[in-house]
C-alpha cells in the first residue's frame, strides 16, 4: 500500500468496466476516497457516457465530474487475448464493477466463478436494470424507466396531470451510492475477518429508490392505500410546500414536527393557533391543511425571500430559498464547503465540478486526477503493471485488442 494518503480507500484497486452513470458513479465515489480505479473501455468507442450531453461544442460536460480520479485503458475483453489480459488485471485487483445485462459476463466466460480462479478475494459489484435474478433479469434497464418501475414516478406530479419523471438521472446516482456502500461493506467483511473472502454484490436499478419508499410499502400493507400523485410532501406534515415571496421568488418550508410549527406560529404572531383544536398538532393540521395553507401562504407572501429566510432562521424554522445553479455559484455556504471545485481539462482548460463529500477529518478524499482521455493509460498499466513490452502493446493495438 502506498504511504501517500489519498483518502480512506488508499491502496484499494478497482477495475471499472461499466458504462453510463450508476455503476461508474459508484466507482467514482471509491476513487474520490483514494481507491486506484482503472476504467476499461472498448477500443475506438469508449464509455457511451463520453457521447452524452450537455456539451460545450463537442465536449461532453458530464464526463469531467463523473470520470475524475480514474485511469483509462482500452481493452476488448470479448477477445481471447483481451480476456487473458483482463484476468491478469483481475489478479491484481480488489474490486470489479460491471453493469452488463445479466448473463453477459458469463456468456463471455468471465462470470464470477471463472474470475475467482484468478483472484479468490475479488469483490464483484454488479448493477443491472432488474437484478441478477427474477423473471425480468434480462430486460434492458435505464434510470428513467427504472424510476417508473420503482413506484416513485406514480407519486410524483399533480393529480390532474400525467406522472412526472425526475429531470435528471436521479435513480442512477442513488444506485451508485448504494453500490459504493455495498462494495466497501464487502471489502470490510473480507479484510477484517479471518475467513474473509471475496463475494458478489448486486442490485437492480429500481431497488435503490424502492428501498427509500418504506412509508409507501407499510401504508399499503396496513391501510391498503394507493398513494396518489403530489407535487410535494403529502400526508406527512402541515404546513409544508413551496411558497412565493413578495419579490417573486420561492422558498420551501416544512414543519415536520409540532415543535417546529410552534416556532412558526410564534414567528407569524399567531400563537392562537397553538390553542386551536384545528391546528395544535400535526395530525389535526393535516385534516385542516387547506385552512393552514390559507394562513401561512399569505403571510409568507408579505416578505421578500431574504427577509423571510432571515426571520425564520432566528426562530429555528427550517426554510430554504429555491436556488438556481447561478445562485449556487454565488452562495457563501457552497464556497466555504468547497462544494464546487475546478479540475483540469485537456481542451477546455478547466471545468468546475462538484467537490468531494462526505468530508473526513483524518483521511480526506480529493480530486487528484482529471477525467482520462480514451486509452490514456494503456502504456502505463500494460507495461508497468503487467510487464508487456512496447512491441507487445503495438501488436495488441494492431489486432484491435486495445
TrEMBL record:
A Pfam family assignment: CoA_transf_3
Keyword Glycosyltransferase found: no
Upper classification of the organism: Bacteria, Bacillati, Bacillota, Bacilli, Bacillales
The protein, known as: Formyl-CoA transferase
Alphabetized GO MF terms: formyl-CoA transferase activity
Top enzyme category: transferase
EC number: 2.8.3.16
Keywords in alphabetical order: Transferase
Nucleotide-binding among keywords: no
PANTHER family listed in its UniProt record: SUCCINATE--HYDROXYMETHYLGLUTARATE COA-TRANSFERASE
Amino acid at each position: 500500500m502506498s504511504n501517500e494518503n489519498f483518502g480512506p480507500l488508499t491502496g484499494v484497486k478497482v477495475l471499472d468496466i461499466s458504462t453510463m452513470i450508476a455503476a461508474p458513479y459508484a466507482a467514482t465515489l471509491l476513487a474520490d476516497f483514494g481507491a486506484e480505479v482503472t476504467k476499461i473501455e472498448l477500443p475506438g468507442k469508449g464509455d457511451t457516457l463520453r457521447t452524452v450531453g450537455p456539451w460545450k461544442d463537442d465536449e461532453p460536460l458530464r464526463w469531467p465530474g463523473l470520470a475524475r480520479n480514474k485511469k483509462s485503458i482500452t481493452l476488448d475483453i470479448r477477445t481471447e487475448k483481451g480476456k487473458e489480459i483482463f484476468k491478469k488485471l483481475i489478479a491484481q485487483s480488489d474490486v470489479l464493477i460491471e453493469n452488463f445485462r445479466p448473463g453477459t459476463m458469463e456468456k463471455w466466460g468471465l462470470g464470477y466463478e471463472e474470475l475467482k480462479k484468478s483472484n479468490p478475494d475479488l469483490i464483484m459489484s454488479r448493477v443491472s436494470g432488474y437484478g441478477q435474478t427474477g423473471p425480468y433479469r434480462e430486460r434492458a434497464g435505464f434510470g428513467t424507466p427504472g424510476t417508473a418501475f420503482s413506484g416513485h414516478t406514480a407519486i410524483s406530479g399533480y393529480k390532474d396531470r400525467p406522472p412526472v419523471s425526475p429531470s435528471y438521472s436521479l435513480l442512477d446516482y442513488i444506485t451508485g451510492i448504494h453500490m459504493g456502500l455495498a462494495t466497501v461493506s464487502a471489502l470490510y467483511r473480507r479484510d477484517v475477518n479471518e475467513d474473509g473472502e471475496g463475494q458478489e454484490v448486486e442490485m437492480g436499478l429500481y431497488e435503490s429508490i424502492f428501498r427509500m419508499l418504506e412509508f409507501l410499502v407499510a401504508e399499503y400493507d396496513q391501510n391498503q392505500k394507493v398513494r396518489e400523485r403530489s407535487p410535494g410532501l403529502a400526508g406527512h406534515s402541515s404546513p409544508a410546500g413551496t411558497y412565493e415571496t413578495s419579490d417573486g421568488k420561492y422558498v420551501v418550508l416544512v414543519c415536520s414536527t409540532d415543535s417546529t410549527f410552534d416556532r412558526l406560529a410564534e414567528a407569524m404572531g399567531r400563537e392562537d393557533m397553538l390553542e386551536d383544536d384545528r391546528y395544535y398538532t400535526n395530525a389535526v393540521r393535516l385534516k385542516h391543511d387547506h385552512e393552514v395553507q390559507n394562513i401561512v401562504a399569505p403571510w409568507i407572501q408579505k416578505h421578500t425571500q431574504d427577509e423571510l429566510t432571515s426571520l425564520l432562521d432566528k426562530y429555528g424554522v427550517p426554510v430554504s430559498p429555491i436556488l438556481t445553479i447561478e445562485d449556487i455559484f454565488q452562495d457563501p455556504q457552497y464556497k466555504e464547503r468547497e462544494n464546487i471545485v475546478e479540475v483540469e481539462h485537456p481542451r477546455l482548460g478547466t471545468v468546475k465540478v462538484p467537490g468531494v463529500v462526505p468530508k473526513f477529518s483524518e483521511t480526506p478524499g480529493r480530486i487528484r486526477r482529471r477525467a482520462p482521455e480514451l486509452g490514456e493509460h494503456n502504456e502505463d498499466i500494460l507495461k508497468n503493471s503487467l510487464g508487456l513490452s512496447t512491441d507487445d502493446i503495438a501488436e495488441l493495438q494492431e489486432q484491435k485488442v486495445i
